[in-house]
Amino acid sequence: MKRRTLDIVFSFGGLALAGLLLILGLVMANQANFAETYVKDQLGQQKITFTPVVGLTAEEKKATCLVDNAGKALLTGKQAECYANEYIGLHVTEINDGKTYSQTSTEARAKKAEADAAKASGAANAGVLAGESAALTGKTDALFRGETLRGLLLTSYGFSIFGERAGQAGFVAFAAALVLLLASLAGFAHAFTKQADHEILSGK
Known about the structure:
By secondary structure, this protein is mainly α.
């Protein structure tokens, strides 16, 4: 087999692989653009704006991202992560001494049962217990809303990360396609040189 034949075979194979990588790169780039646009649109519909610097508490100012995004609209996955963890996360822990929705809900049910029993028996502290029960119910509702919004924002952040990874994969695919294209063109160029007339793999 002449070197020219081998050059042409490998060059066509390289072109085919470059084409496949180009298609893969286009698909990944499209997915990255879709994820970025989708996240931006969904977050934009929430109309969330970061608190201006002057409105941040001393504790909130400890979070660099809250200071950096102060006064800005929440539109990106990275901003969603910041708002969810540093802002909502902080205030959720302040609602009931760091207790979660599940813990507070259990506490609220127990307090309601205690208040109902006190009311039924005509206990002197029935009014106090009813007030404590109502307060815990309010905290439960606040925790539910806070943890739900935090979860949704973190989901948006996760979706944006997948988009970023798709964009990176697309870039690698484009780069690999370019390398294969150049190698294939070099192979075609070599196939029409005098050196390509040499016999290789002849078995002689």
